[in-house]
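Minutes, project check-in
Item: structure for the 299-residue chain
Input as provided by the requester:
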Amino acid sequence: MQRRDDETNRPKSAEDLPESAPATDREETPVGHPGPHKAYRNLDFLESSSARSLRILSEYVEPNARFKHYKIDDTIIFFGSARILPRDVAQQRLEAAQAAGEDLKIPQRNLEMSRYYEDTRELARRLTEWSKGLQEGDRRFVVCSGGGPGIMEAANRGASEARGLNIGLNISLPMEQIDNPYISRELNFEFHYFFMRKFWFAYLAKAVVVMPGGFGTLDEFFELLTLVQTGKIRKAMPVVLFGSRYWSEVINLEALERYGTINAEDLELFFRTDSVDEAFDFITDQLTSYALDIPGPRL
């Protein structure tokens, strides 16, 4: 027998719906219930794989709106280890280990490495003081870090000591990554996707300082070098590789040229130094020459 149209088109009961149907479809709406959620208020949907493109887009649109609101034209990026301690903390831990009769190898190493925290802090402070003195309407060359502890904290701390706005691009990680207290609260970001965080590093940056660090720092350093080397980043991008002894032991960049896997001129894509004064002079000279008259983010 042919079914009537009203039977064919009537709503299915909850028992007829598949288990995958949204709860709002599988439950009857009681009298007085406000009704179904709008899609953009449905967290089950927004956190699902179906909405991944929306989450990715939000990590572009929301930071972009905030940077525009606070008139952030461009940045100076600081990369480096999350594990490097401030000098006073490293000194206290060494003294505590000495008093307890513990092995001093790690506390002594931490105290030696703390110089990079203090150098980062000083360099970020001086660069912030310099950028605040520029005759510009918007904020230029704002210190930006990955937002965590260690070198990242030192960069944000130095900028805050110069009373400058500074940026933290945090990433959700199971360890180490806790936002440091020196980031300007209005420019403290939390990313889920590494590639969106990396986009904002590269898009806003007009200079980069690479302090001693581990896998994350190496990843960021080599990715930026690759973008510059291949011309995917077309803007002038001064890169400071800070800590000659550390980097010469960790990576043999000259060997890449010797074996023919890079060109000799590729070794000129970055400037090596152990001096805050040299790093400051190099960055400010490069920015004045190649970036001062070209405000705004770009690749």
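Outcome recorded: The chain has a mean pLDDT of 90.
No further action items on this chain.
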